[in-house]
Amino acid sequence: MQCSQKAIDGYIKLLPSDQKSIHPYVSLIYLIQCQSFQFLNQIQQAQRLIDDTETCLKEWFDMRQHPLKGLFFYYQGAHYRWLYNQYLTCVEEIINLQHFDLTEIKFLVQGLINQEKQIIKTFDYFHSNVIKSIKTHLDNFIYQSGGKHNQKKIVEGVTKQESISILDNMILASAIGSLNGISQFLDALAIFNHFETENKCIDLIRFALITQEKQYNK
Question: Is the residue at 114 inside a domain?
Fold first, then answer.
């Protein structure tokens, strides 16, 4: 991580003099860093880096067509899928506390989907063992964000499929709509096909699309 950051710092110093050729290298390093934070289960940092990549490449993309745009869309789609799995883990951890009712659970899940800084930081710290318990932090998030709540029946004994259902319904009702990455994968595939580019991502995208279709047909 330190080496990649030093490389970014060095490239950025060259940007004023050679902006056109430097931008792609900085963006690729951002993507490498993003994968590193995904491996560490750190949502906030991974999301920041995928956003930084998009910002870094936006003007460059506007000026030219390039297969690198397809590569970015692939990584963005993969990030959304990773993000979904992270959220699902968080939902299961919330429910397993056997401390919240359904209204509170949905409120917390909505906070995750909206990437509210307080709740994302709580889970990032928990997954990196900075904190040992999330119960008090989640209570504080509910109180500070929604005020006092008259708790009803605590949710217990929920299956993984029920956790998936809660998360899917909340995502579907949100502005995001989906985190399956399919739209980004299709954009990536279109760009790779346009440039007749050979990239290992193409096979990964096709596999993802086939898997998604099988799930819909179940």
Answer: yes
Total residues belonging to the chain: 218
Q: Identify the bridge partners of residue 154 per DSSP, sorted by sequence position.
A: 101
Asked if 61 contacts 69 with a C-beta cutoff of 8 angstroms, the reply is yes
State the DSSP code for 176.
Answer: S
3-state helix, strand, coil in the chain (%, to 5): 75, 0, 20
Residue 206 binned pLDDT confidence (cut-offs 50, 70, 90): confident
Report the SS3 class of residue 188.
helix
Instruction: Calculate the CA dihedral of residues 149, 153, 159, 163 and round it to 10 degrees.
Output: -20
User: How many domains in the chain?
Assistant: 1
Helix locations, 114-181, DSSP H: 117-127, 135-146, 160-173
Residue 112: count of CB within 10 angstroms of its CB = 23
On whether residue 30 sits in a domain, the answer given is: no
Secondary structure (DSSP) of 101-121: BHHHHHHHHHHHHTT-HHHHH
CA distance 19 to 57: 11
**Per-residue pLDDT tens over the stretch 120-166:** 999 999 999 999 999 999 999 998 887 667 778 888 878 899 999 99
Q: Which of 86, 9, 83 is nearest to 47 (CA)?
A: 83
* 192: in domain: yes
Domain enclosing residue 144, as ranges: 65-216
Q: Is the pTM of this model over 0.90?
A: no
Quick count: other Cβ atoms within 10 Å of Cβ 175? 7
Residue 1 is inside which H or E element, if any? none
d(CA 20, CA 22): 6
